[in-house]
Amino acid sequence: PNGLSETAIAAIAATLAQGRLTRLADSLLGETGQAVNIRADLARLAERIPVHLILGHRDRILDWRESLDVSPRIAIHHLPRAGHMPQWEALGDVAAVLTRIIGPR
After folding, report:
1. Residue 23 has what pLDDT?
2. Which of 23, 30, 78, 90 has the largest count of CB atoms under 10 Å?
3. Is it the case that residue 39 has pLDDT exceeding 80?
4. Is the pLDDT higher at 61 or at 32?
5. What are the residue ranges of helices labelled H in 1-105?
6. Which pairing describes strands 51-56 and 33-34: parallel, antiparallel, or unpaired?
7. Bridge-partner residues for 79, per DSSP?
8. Which own/partner pairs from 69-77 qualify as long-range (CB within 8 Å, at least 24 positions apart)?
9. Cβ atoms within 10 A of the Cβ of 90, count?
């Protein structure tokens, strides 16, 4: 929706064709689903620095509802109309969140 250029689309397609994402996914998945759980790591990190999650509700890879049990110290930003790549699909919303977190530059 944000008009990726033909060059960007070609670069993404070339990366996907290399199969690296498939190998990465295979290393992260177990027999019953995702084998990697970073909730405890995020909770420890949130004890030291602010942690924010930006979640797209239309993500078909990671279910946003799995974030409901993260540490209460973690700020969660929900983007109902975005999928797995909210920085592309909801650029304005992501930029607004980041601007609020780090301030204008």
Report:
1. 80
2. 90
3. yes
4. 61
5. 6-17, 20-28, 39-46, 86-89, 91-102
6. unpaired
7. 56
8. 69/39, 70/39, 70/42, 70/43, 71/39, 71/42, 71/43, 71/46, 73/43, 73/46, 73/47, 74/42, 74/43, 74/46, 75/50, 75/51, 76/52, 77/52, 77/53
9. 22
